[in-house]
Design a protein that fits this description.
heterodimer; A: 179 residues; Helix Hairpins; Monooxygenase; 2 domains; 7 helices; B: 615 residues; alpha+beta; Nucleotidyltransferase, domain 5; Actin, Chain A, domain 4; Substrate Binding Domain Of DNAk, Chain A, domain 1; 5-stranded mixed beta sheet; binds adenosine-5'-triphosphate; binds magnesium ion
Chain lengths: 179, 615
């Protein structure tokens, strides 16, 4: 059962966030262990299992980035699991990431917070672009499943997304330090 | 017929257990219950106050005093009177918390904080909290005249796994079944939401004595969904007190104050701070030192602390994908939100005037009582549902001391995640797993929750042995880990006992100790029994008064009613079971003639009833 199945939704990137939230609430009301009779251990266990699956699916699908990674995993490339990353990432993508990280490290040592913020804004924009590109590829896969080129492109873009996300988390930590 | 007293004629009704809500606070603790559909705080301390100071005093003779009476002993016995112990829950002996200005004597040698106190063994924060919970449990039992064995206990939303485990252990030590650990801001929202029938998006800003929490919730038709949460479990009014106390000590040129001076200065600082919430200036006197403090000065000194709450609020909003203007309201909780500078800060941060119309001291306990009622009262189960989140990400250590995040913060609980590990050496039959919690990239910057070794992996060549480690987080936000070797299907359950926690064996031992040795406990149990008894007597006497009031001889009724009122008052105030016992006996003797007439009438009624049927 996929996360989409849990909600009775088709496996598509585009979804209505408000609708997803509503479905989550309705299913939680139906399945939640707090609504099972406290004395019925079996019913309770089943409720915990179903609610856990529901919440896991919700966590993944409500987040635009996680949802993209999940669709990629459904297409056969699991970037979330250790060692699952593509070994053939184009060298210029790696260089781009390394440069950015170096720049951030410099800003950090120099306590140059405006510079860090500026870098973060740039990376944020890059990430949005990479995600959009990945989504385009994933949508191609949705319509024509056997499309190895699109899958590969999506995985490259999502790898960038992941690096950018790490970068942004570090920048965030720095930002909090600044406050 | 044999002379019977009130004690003999009560209906042999089985006392029904009550489930209560407990706010186990850094400075104050409260117990509340839903009574006739409404949540209410119960008297928790001597004198009937609903606030029980979270202070525990250990006597040289081995006794334990809790609450206001313990507080009174702090200046004379600074090391034996433990306050703000919540800040040590789930902490290791080297935690920065142990280095702050304070009067405690710490004992090392164990992975948990221990205090050296009078009267025997060193005590852990779990035991100290257990004493507070036990006191609340007894007070509630005294109130209901019935056993109280189930509770919802609140914790700061930002408490990590070790702090939650410790709180649950404390409940167990106090003889309570912990139905749920409920996050404090969520409890407050529950109390507000149900009281005001609110819908929409709310931020709850909770600044108490020792902890700061912020939660963003969405309320829709009885579902309370936490969107995000943030905070600092070591930031609160205590820190305001410390800043002020340090200024006093500096002004007094006291570089090496004695523990008793520290306690005194902290108490004066707290009183001055609280007065400055309404006054512009106060004059403090410490021995022969006099000093005037203005509100502006205080605000200046605590500004960095107040501002420290800002990033967590902004991050919580960001995590929820919201701007301040999306909110429908901001709710203030906790005593420290009475500080005007805090209110101004919150108003500015969220761009609106915050609400504080339910007593900020009580609102958390009231919410906990509601949740306890929802969880035990099946008739109410479908009114409301709480969906809370995991406050801090859970992950595993990977190569190079980097954290691999398995479950991100703000995931709705219960939740789970699995991670696959492969062996990296030929014939490797064990694997080390290190569980951490926190948002930082490096293991060293996160909280270490537990380390364990998975053994019994079959000898295979490198990369062939595959183990799936699964994290399951329950509705309390507590983690359980299990592992499964995939080639053989052999699975192992691992109890994650936090690195800075107590083992099950230690808890068992503490339970035994508290049952065997505490003389005070026995007396308390007797007191409780007498309270239960007195409750029955009172209820029954009322019934008889209503039904058979005509059986009083002239002049009998008024003294009887006076005796009842007196007993009623005694039930609430008596601290010694013998006092109650004596009062009960006296009442019994006094009411005997009346009770005999009641019995005679009952017999007569029964006989005449028969006569109708049979003849
Ligand atoms: N009028 C006031 N002005 C300023 N501070 C106040 C006032 N009244 C109470 N406080 C402070 O509020 C704090 C206690 O708040 P509260 O009882 O909400 O905390 P708690 O629930 O015990 O702690 P926590 O929730 O952090 O575990 C103390 O630091 C106290 O000094
Ligand atoms: Mg509190």
């Amino acid at each position: 059962m996929t996360h989409f199945d849990v909600f009775g939704l088709p496996p598509r990137y585009t979804l209505d966030a408000a609708d997803l939230e509503k479905r989550h609430r309705a299913l939680a009301l139906e399945w939640h262990p707090d609504r099972a009779a406290p004395s019925d251990a079996r019913a309770h266990r089943v409720a915990v299992e179903r609610t856990t699956a529901l919440n896991d699916a919700y966590r993944v699908l409500k987040d635009p980035i996680r949802r993209a990674f999940y669709l990629l995993a459904l297409a056969g490339v699991d970037l979330d699991h250790a060692g699952g990353g593509p070994r053939d990432l184009p060298i210029e993508m790696l260089e781009e990431v390394l440069e950015l990280r170096e720049a951030l490290a410099e800003a950090k040592t120099a306590k140059d917070f405006p510079r860090a913020r500026e870098l973060a804004a740039r990376v944020e924009a890059e990430r949005t672009g990479a995600l959009a590109a990945a989504v385009l590829c994933l949508e191609l896969v949705e319509t024509s499943p056997a499309n190895p080129v699109a899958v590969k492109k999506a995985s490259h873009q999502l790898s960038r997304v992941r690096y950018f996300t790490r970068f942004l988390e570090e920048a965030d930590a720095l930002e909090e330090e600044a406050l | 017929m044999a002379a019977g007293g009130l004690m003999q004629i009560h209906d042999p009704q089985k006392p029904r257990g009550f489930a209560v809500g407990i706010d186990l606070g850094t400075t104050h603790s409260l117990v509340a219950a839903v009574i006739e559909g409404k949540p209410r705080c119960l008297p928790a301390d001597v004198g009937g106050s609903v606030l029980l100071p979270s202070v525990v005093h250990y006597q040289a003779a081995g006794g334990v005093v809790v609450g206001k009476n313990a507080q009174a002993l702090a200046a004379d016995f600074p090391g034996d009177t433990l306050k703000s112990v919540k800040r040590f829950m789930g902490k290791g002996p080297d935690d920065p918390e142990t280095k702050r200005l304070g009067a405690y004597r710490f004992v090392g040698g164990k992975p948990v904080v221990r205090f050296d106190v009078a009267g025997g063994q060193p005590v852990t924060p779990v035991e100290v909290s257990g004493e507070i919970l036990r006191t609340l449990k007894r007070r509630a039992e005294g109130h209901f005249m019935a056993k109280v064995e189930q509770a919802v206990i609140t914790v700061p939303a930002y408490f990590d796994d070790a702090q939650r485990q410790a709180t649950k252990d404390a409940g167990r030590l106090a003889g309570l079944e912990v139905l749920r650990l409920l996050n404090e801001p969520t409890a407050a929202a529950l109390a507000y939401g149900l009281d005001k029938g609110s819908q929409g998006l709310f931020a709850v800003y909770d600044l108490g004595g020792g902890t700061f929490d912020v939660s963003i919730l969405k309320l829709v038709e009885g579902v309370f969904e936490v969107k995000s949460t943030g905070g600092d479990t070591a930031l609160g009014g205590d820190d305001f007190d410390r800043v002020l106390a340090e200024k006093f000590l500096a002004a007094m040129k006291l570089e090496a104050p004695t523990p008793s001076q520290v306690v005194q200065v902290l108490a004066v600082a707290r009183a001055a701070k609280e007065r400055l919430s309404v006054a512009d200036r106060v004059e403090v006197g410490l021995d022969d030192h006099r000093q005037v403090v203005t509100r502006a000065e205080l605000e200046e000194w605590i500004r960095p602390l107040v501002q420290k709450t800002g990033p967590a609020c902004r991050r919580a909003l960001k995590d929820a994908g919201l701007k301040p203007s999306d909110l429908d309201g901001v709710v203030l909780v906790g005593g420290s939100t009475r500080v005007p500078a805090v209110r101004r800060f919150v108003a500015e941060l969220f761009g609106r005037e915050p609400l504080a119309d339910i007593d900020p001291d009580q609102v958390v306990a009231l919410g906990a009582a509601i949740q306890a009622d929802l969880l035990t009262n099946s008739a109410r189960a479908d009114e409301v549902l709480l969906l809370d989140v995991l406050p801090l990400s859970l992950g595993l250590e990977t190569m190079g001391g980097v954290v691999e995040r398995l479950i991100p913060r703000n995931s709705t609980v219960p939740t789970a995640a699995a991670q696959l590990f492969t062996t990296f050496q030929d014939g490797q039959n064990a694997m080390d797993v290190h569980v951490v919690q926190g948002e930082r990239e490096l293991v060293a910057d996160c909280r270490s929750l537990a380390r364990f070794r998975l053994s019994g992996i079959p000898a295979l060549s490198a990369g062939m042995g595959r183990v799936e480690v699964r994290f399951q987080v329950d509705a309390d936000g507590i983690l359980a880990v299990s592992a499964k070797e995939l080639s053989t299907g052999v699975s192992q359950e691992i109890t994650v006992k936090p690195s800075h926690g107590l083992t099950d064996a230690e808890i068992e031992q503490m339970l035994l100790d508290s049952i065997e040795h505490a003389e005070e406990d026995v007396r308390a149990r007797f007191l409780r029994e007498q309270q239960v008894e007195a409750g029955r007597v009172l209820a029954d006497a009322r019934k008889q008064l209503a039904q058979n009031g005509d059986l009083f001889e002239p002049g009998e009724r008024a003294p009887f009613e006076a005796a009842l009122a007196e007993l009623e008052a005694l039930v609430r105030t008596a601290t010694d079971f013998q006092v109650l016992e004596t009062a009960l006996r006296a009442l019994d003797a006094q009411s005997r003639p009346f009770v005999e007439r009641v019995m005679n009438r009952a017999i007569a009624d029964a006989v005449s009833g028969h006569s109708v049927e049979e003849y």
